[in-house]
Amino acid sequence: MHLRARLSALGIAALAAIPLTVLGPAAASHAAASPAKAVRSCTTAKAGYASCQALVRTDVTGTVAPAGAKPDAATPSGFGPADLQSAYNLPSATAGSGRTVAIVDAYDDPTAEADLGVYRSQFGLPACTTANGCFKKVDQNGGTSYPRKDGGWAQEISLDLDMVSAICPNCHILLVEASSSSFANLGAAVNRAAATPGVVAISNSYGGSDASDATYGSYYNHPGIAVTASSGDNGYGASYPASSHYVTAVGGTSLSKASTSRGWSETAWSGAGSGCSAYNTALSGQASFGTGCAKRAEADVSAVANPSTGVAVYDSTAYQGYVGWMVFGGTSVSSPVIASVYALAGNTGSIDNNYPYTHSSSLNDVTSGSNGSCTTSQWCTARTGWDGPTGLGTPNGVGAF
């Protein structure tokens, strides 16, 4: 039975005791740190629907969880804003003002704004609230008739909002909540985000089976706006909307501090999604990079995604017993990171998703690690230049965006 089918049959609760590296097809030796234990925030998607790509650590313990909830860290574990800004050489302190990053997710997170405030206060970031005009939350129709609460997607929403805050603290944030996780509703939410003045980037930290732009592409085709999508957390196998011709597909790495001039090192994360679309046209920029795919190849670029080297997130909508400060991974981390780097660069009005391919020298090329074994090695194994799990590499400043 295929891995995804086995996971679905197990059910989400059964995943809590599975070492994270089992969730991807590669061996644990590919990780940059010891394997963590993690559980998916969202259940596996059925046809026509998407699942969020967030993985929450289950082995980070502390003392501050409310009664009846599993413990979390009193002092946040995981990488914070200063770490991510350093790792990717970002002008976060000075750039992004006047630009909006939109987050599209399914269902409602009733504590989104309050939790965002806790995160930003913890790390000394300026307040981002409805009252000061920095934060706005709408339903997929642009109103306030929010969908039902979903604890798993609430974790995803908090993760996304915190990553925008970490990378572009001067940006405004728009949260658009879709009525369900169907591609039709998520797509309507993307269109709503794109129609909102000031939005320069839209992050989509979700995915489902490879699909055709002939069916769903109109939701993601927004010239002048950078649309990013998570490549997935199950290793090799194309995922939509990352496989769309119109988005920047974002893969994943393991990120570690290192005694180098950069101060950091990265390898391909064993769970990072990669693949060749069966339906959608390749980006013109991919032609000279030897992807080996007849059509669209993913990923394009990448950022940290391994929960073993994960990021700090605050969420107070308890789910599966986890609440408060947690450590997250998955390509749900890397998608909003890259969307926010686009916002820092401020070029989205004049470029498209081929731009990284003509500016790859401004990326950290990730040349080791794997997400499994493929008949065409670069689909699964990192190498010099483009490869499936990490694309062209990770940000080294904003020159590739």
From TrEMBL:
Signal as a keyword? Answer: yes
Question: Record's Gene3D superfamilies?
Answer: Peptidase S8/S53 domain
Output the GO biological process annotations, alphabetical, semicolon-separated: proteolysis
Keyword list (alphabetical) reads: Signal
Instruction: Specify the domain of life of the species encoding this protein.
Output: Bacteria
Indicate yes or no for the key word Signal.
yes
Show the GO MF annotations.
Answer: serine-type endopeptidase activity; tripeptidyl-peptidase activity
Q: Where is the signal peptide?
A: 1-31
The UniProt record lists the Peptidase S53 domain at 78-401
Q: Which InterPro entries match?
A: Peptidase_S8/S53_dom_sf, Sedolisin_dom, Tripeptidyl-peptidase_I
Q: What is this protein called?
A: Peptidase S53 domain-containing protein
Question: In which organism is this protein found?
Answer: Actinacidiphila guanduensis
Q: What is the lineage of its organism?
A: Bacteria, Bacillati, Actinomycetota, Actinomycetes, Kitasatosporales
